[in-house]
């Protein structure tokens, strides 16, 4: 059987165009959407990723400010930088890029990002709002999974969806978004036991574990739609997902590739969220227009 490859590239371009159009609309109103990315690492692949956000922002007409505090930044340095960006009216969206220096906990720092500028849904307040159905920015990666499934007209209501991974940035918010769409969800993690117990009967399997080759062809049915969120850099420098692509191709009905799947859509959504944040912030300044 041939497995359909669900590329995210066309969707990523469509979302980027939407962000571009919204940025032009904001410019016409005298507003200049700006995204700030806070970095504190020497890790080359992180800097490569941040530059890719910067280039995509430029293409969309969004300013991107890289705040590089260096690999020896302290938690206090990072907290001060985040608070300064919160207070800066020219900044609309803030991302705290991981990894952080050893001993600095991202979980504590993300609480400093103002919810209205939290365009990657990192602040626990954003996750809480998502949980109770209040307006908030969902983490872009979790939203990207839903956007890809919608783009390819894959129904979610009443479907049996397995999410592998329960992090606050991917697995949990994605499960909330799927619940909002009336899917029946099972969340797997490192202690949930053999994956095939859950995945064999799943209509949709989303893998977000950060383990290369975790899901293979023996884990899924021929009807399964497999979404690979994982990004793993192999010793030879190549990028692979969490799915053993060679064994899943030919078994599952459809699969998102890595690279060219969820990741490309994620970056475009960060830009779209920035324009949405800029619009919301401008409305909040005009009495009677907030909301
Ligand atoms: P994380 O915080 O390390 O969480 C990984 C999750 O996977 C945990 O819940 C863990 O379970 C679970 N897990 C690990 N090994 C497992 C196993 N053998 N069986 C079942 N579950 C297992 O990672 P994350 O931040 O969520 O990221 C997950 C992956 O997505 C990574 O590869 C990351 O690079 C990628 N990612 C991609 C994008 C994108 O835009 N494409 C964005 C963000 C992240 P426990 O909770 O029990 O430890």
Strand order of the biggest β-sheet: 1-11-8-7-5-6
Q: N-to-C SSE series? A: EHEHEHEHHHEHEHEEEEHEH
CATH topology of the largest domain: Rossmann fold
Per CATH, the class of the largest domain reads Alpha Beta
CATH architecture of the largest domain, please? 3-Layer(aba) Sandwich
- Determine Rg (CA atoms, Å): 19 Å
Calculate the mean pLDDT score and round it: 96
Q: How would you name the CATH homologous superfamily of the largest domain?
A: NAD(P)-binding Rossmann-like Domain
Q: State the helical fraction.
A: 25-40%
Strand content: 5-15%
The total count of helices amounts to 10
Main beta sheet: 6 strands, parallel
Give the distance, in angstroms, between the N- and C-terminal Cα atoms. 49 Å
- Count of strand segments: 11
Low-confidence stretches: none
Oligomer: single chain
What overall geometry do the principal axes of the alpha carbons give? globular
Ligands bound to this protein structure? NADP nicotinamide-adenine-dinucleotide phosphate
Q: What structural category do the secondary elements indicate? A: alpha/beta
Catalytic activity: (6R)-5,10-methylene-5,6,7,8-tetrahydrofolate + NADP(+) = (6R)-5,10-methenyltetrahydrofolate + NADPH; (6R)-5,10-methenyltetrahydrofolate + H2O = (6R)-10-formyltetrahydrofolate + H(+)
GO biological process, one term: methionine biosynthetic process
GO molecular function: methenyltetrahydrofolate cyclohydrolase activity; methylenetetrahydrofolate dehydrogenase (NADP+) activity
Protein name: Bifunctional protein FolD
